[in-house]
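Table S2 (continued). Query chain:
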Amino acid sequence: MSDTPIQWIAAAIFAVALLHTFSAKQFERLSHRYPRHAGLFHLLGEVEVVFGFWAIVLVVVMALVGGGSAALDYAESRNYTEPLFVFVVMVIAASRPVLVTVMSMVDMVARLVPVRTSLAAAWLGLAAVPLLGSLITEPAAMTIAALMLAPRIFRPDVPEGVKYLALGVLFVNVSIGGTLTSYAAPPVLMVAATWQWDSAFMLATFGWKAALAVLVNATAAVWVLRSHLLALPAGPKRKAAADRVPPSVVAVHIALLAGVVLFAHHPVVFLGLFLMFLGFAQAYERYQSPLILKEALLVGFFLAGLVVLGGMQQWWLQPIVSGLSPVALFLGALGLTAITDNAALTYLGSLIVGISDDSKYMLVAGAVAGGGLTVIANAPNPAGVALLKRGFADETIGAGGLLLGAAVPTVVAAAAFMFL
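Corresponding output:
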């Protein structure tokens, strides 16, 4: 798997996958223009399908060039724990008992704040829930925040530019909001054990800075959105039955979610808990909404594809990461995160022998600050895209729109990590 031709081919396929990600919206438009092939264009227009599709292409090409056994060995050598975890945590976190409980708490807090409930609820969804990700993990926070904000912000009557700003704020805040602990943010998790960074260190070094940036971003976004939020009633209407979930059912769901988070790095355990969840949800179906299995599976497919494609990019990424000064490393990580998963970037940094403490900080700070720039920048982003894309034109989220929407909140996050 170290043959130079394979490496160059893998890099070329990775570049094509990136271009495909940025042009996914165009495939969706082609599906309307050529209805005979609408199914194919719609499939290629699904952002969550892109990296999984090109990962399959890579494995097929590797089989043709190096033999089927070598290609299969490479595919099986990848670690798919994160895609599996994101799939499981998305489904459980989006279940009606968990979602209604969190939304009820948010609504209760929103009513206590001396501003319109619609403004306060949106602010809590963009600020409090991303920070909660430091406890429940970023994918769970993204799922809950996206489902909470969808009826408030991501509506057909809200201008596209404003929605992209809100999406950018959400993605950036989730990316940096998980840095208050050492286990919730994938890019932090990749280096925490190697560099001996515990939760106390994260809170003192990154967490308080991230919290300030989250509050600034959320406040600015709600200010821009205020006219659209004030047009809402006191709170989005929900079915009365959704509010009548027995406490015992809620307790079981919360316990299973906590177990999945606790054993996030042990797929045998959290998949077993997930099977228990599916059985319990079926037994008490009257207290459930349809599970988001399709959306979660697509996100898992996306992340698994990124694992396969990203595993072949170390040969050119690591020399770049290891050859930069601390400040250049911060800016480089900020930019590179837009074209590769930030957890993969920090993992490569953890392999560098003798890296200075300043460089460690700058690498992780740049990686998490840039986590909202693209769909692939941070593992939870595909979950947000899957749950919110219906609120955008053509039911697709354009990569260019997201990049522009995330630009200002990314600058805020970067400034917090650089100057505070």
